[in-house]
Write a structure and sequence with these properties.
The protein has 199 residues and is an alpha/beta fold. The protein has 6 helices and 9 strands; from the N terminus they run βαβαβαβαβαββαββ. Strand 4, helix 4 and strand 5 form a beta-alpha-beta unit. The protein is globular and about 50 Å long.
């Protein structure tokens, strides 16, 4: 069984969805460690309450790569096969990304390449798009940029505001992330240029 390492900075609702799928047996994986850069992250308490190994590696006052080296050491110590970012509010250094080639996943609450960065749901709503959604992608050295594994489309309703849209996107995030993890762990894909081809 493959080992997952979860990195989070906040409440970790995507972590919760992953953990629920693992516990139910619908995702054939083991959460080996949950790491946060913030001691007050609710996701860390949630991980501990589930009996999972949880570790805080504070980032405040540390150079990015120095912090990343500490995180990478913890992931390697727990033999992590796949790193999943679940609301991890830090840019990863190129050094970190190189340690886990095609082994870091992120989820973004928009249909990339549209609306990268923070407040993607608000960006989409303010722009007036008719559809939005979420994207699970491999992480590379650039923000919200790596090859796309899974996307889910969410219609923008006339009665929506940015909060109702964000809530409906989040429901799809929970489905998309575990779907993408399953694809990657099974290894039934190839990356050709920017395209993830499923086999």
């Amino acid at each position: 069984m493959k080992n997952l390492g979860i990195l989070l900075s906040g409440r970790g609702s995507n972590f919760e969805a992953i953990a629920d799928k693992v516990e139910s047996g619908k995702l054939n994986a083991n959460i080996a460690i949950v790491i946060s850069n913030r001691a007050d992250a609710p996701g860390i308490e949630s991980a501990r309450s589930r009996g999972l190994k949880a570790q805080v590696i504070p980032s405040k006052g540390k150079v990015r790569e120095e912090h990343d080296r500490d995180v990478a050491a913890a992931l390697c110590a727990h033999r992590v096969d796949l790193v999943c970012l679940a609301g991890y509010m830090r840019l990863l250094s190129p050094w970190f990304v190189q340690q886990f080639p095609n082994r870091i996943l992120n989820i973004h609450p928009a249909l990339l390449p549209a609306f990268p960065g923070l407040e993607a749901q608000k960006q989409a709503f303010d722009y007036g798009v008719k559809v939005s959604g979420c994207t699970v992608h491999f992480v590379d050295e650039n923000l919200d940029h790596g090859a796309i594994i899974v996307q889910k489309v969410v219609p923008v309703l006339d009665g929506d505001d940015e909060h109702s849209l964000a809530a409906r996107i989040l429901e799809q995030e929970h489905i998309a992330y575990t779907e993408a993890i399953g694809i990657v762990l099974e290894g039934k894909f190839s990356v050709e240029g920017r395209r993830v081809i499923l086999r």
